[in-house]
Amino acid sequence: MTVSERHIPTTLDGPFEPATRRFDSSLRRGSDDLPMTHPRLRMNVSLNFPEQIALAVSSSTSMWISWVTGNAQIGLNVTPLDPASVRSEVWYGKKSGKYTSVGKGDSLVYSQLYPFEGLLNYTSGIIHHVKLEGLEPGTRYYYKCGDSSIQAMSQESTFETFQTPSPKNYPTRIALIGDLGLTSNSTTTIDHLTNNDPSMILMIGDLTYANQYRTTGGKGASCFSCAFPDAPIRESYQPRWDGWGRFMEPLTSKIPMMVIEGNHEIEPQADGITFKSYLSRFAVPAKESGSKSNFYYSFDAEGIHFIMLGSYVDYNSTGAQFSWLKQDLQSVNRSVTPWLVATMHAPWYNSYASHYQEFECMRSEMEALLYQYKVDIVFNGHVHAYERMNRVYNYTLDRCGPIYITVGDGGNIEKVDVDHADEPGKCPLAGDNTPEFGGVCHSNFSSGPAKGNFCWNKQPEWSAFRESSFGHGILEVQVIKF
């Protein structure tokens, strides 16, 4: 292919004139949650057989495999299962039915407790995590997981390891989803994503919306605080996590899914405990990347280095996450992994009224570091729409800045966002959009076309394209030879 034959514009052709594809008013802005009786959410295995099987990348020579066994319990009185009662085994090999190796791992049970009248306590099934090591890069493996001592092994499935990090190797297709939920729109998103045949999924926070099910999604009270005035915290209906794991298993049992937490994963319970579901259900390469927290970590997928950042843990320049991020960025060898991609749930650049300037504090702490180390792309969720930015730094067009892309349009119960902050009457008040973690740093612009104002009076020049719809993103890296 010659240069003259290439018609797909690149970021080098930008910045692009801001464009908006407005919401089609003939369409619905959202859909209802799927009921727990839906075939894709129901438990369809016997008691100790594996379900909710999920893969996660550790490296090109190692893979995490997670699953759940046993019945979760919900009610006023629940008794946790014994994690030691069922083994954590993975049989695997390079030929179907020929398992030459066995991996063993750890298991756990978590509880979500609400000792308040009318609320329901929960204790999970047994959650298993096994890390397979010593794998060959770029190789297909066949595996079963479960407990062979009680003949409770899963059906055979497969996965492929990534090739060794190199500027010549890239994943064929990476799916990007934010704010997915469990609605009819979520189903359409996942079906469409499956047809795109990705080699990995980046799940950018707000996975199940379990914390809203008893009000917006289930058959509970429409006003939670009205129905449960003596409950100081909102109940998160944990069976939705189990339904979500079953809903995702046809994909996640074959391709790795890398997750980062969103605000709907906070799920406060008694004694100030938070994020229990997220921390218990997902294996991530935190230790492998030098992180001491599953809230932020990094990994390589062939020629791309991914950095997963936590919006809802300390992000200040004096904190552990910032220190880890700086060290991780310093360690990246761009001659091996030329592409540097970051992701966090909450966007720093956003021209929708929803969550407008909500995470200015995080941006002011971390943006200069991403700019210094020339991060290429930053993916976000949180805002339920699609928006792609021109290359930007500190609200100024900058050819050396990252491209920020919001893909918080997975299909959840809260519906798609349609209002833009630059439209008449849609600019939020400075006191609106308070984050669920961290401080408030709202301010008027100090320079540029919006100088002196809190909102722009037209689509900002750093916003290249925005669209109110549900869906997902696909990231492909193509090596073009001239």
Secondary structure layout plus pairing:
Elements: E1 19-21, E2 51-59, E3 62-69, E4 73-75, E5 89-93, E6 101-104, E7 106-108, E8 111-112, E9 121-123, E10 126-132, E11 140-147, E12 152-153, E13 157-160, E14 174-177, H1 184-195, E15 200-204, H2 213-217, H3 224-227, H4 239-252, E16 257-260, H5 276-281, E17 297-301, E18 304-308, H6 320-331, E19 339-343, H7 360-372, E20 377-380, E21 386-389, E22 392-393, E23 396-397, E24 403-407, E25 463-467, E26 473-475
Parallel strand pairs: 1-25, 14-15, 15-16, 18-19, 19-20, 20-24
Antiparallel strand pairs: 2-3, 3-10, 4-9, 5-6, 5-11, 7-10, 8-9, 11-12, 11-13, 14-26, 17-18, 21-24, 21-25, 22-23
Oligomeric state as shown: single chain
Query: What proportion strand?
Result: 15-25%
Q: What characterizes the major β-sheet?
A: 8 strands, mixed
Query: What is the overall silhouette?
Result: globular
Per CATH, the architecture is 4-Layer Sandwich
| Neighbour order of strands in the largest sheet | 1-25-21-24-20-19-18-17
Number of helices: 7
CATH hierarchy class name: Alpha Beta
Low-confidence regions: none
Cofactor: Fe cation
GO molecular function: acid phosphatase activity; metal ion binding
Keywords: Glycoprotein, Hydrolase, Signal, Zinc
Catalytic activity: a phosphate monoester + H2O = an alcohol + phosphate
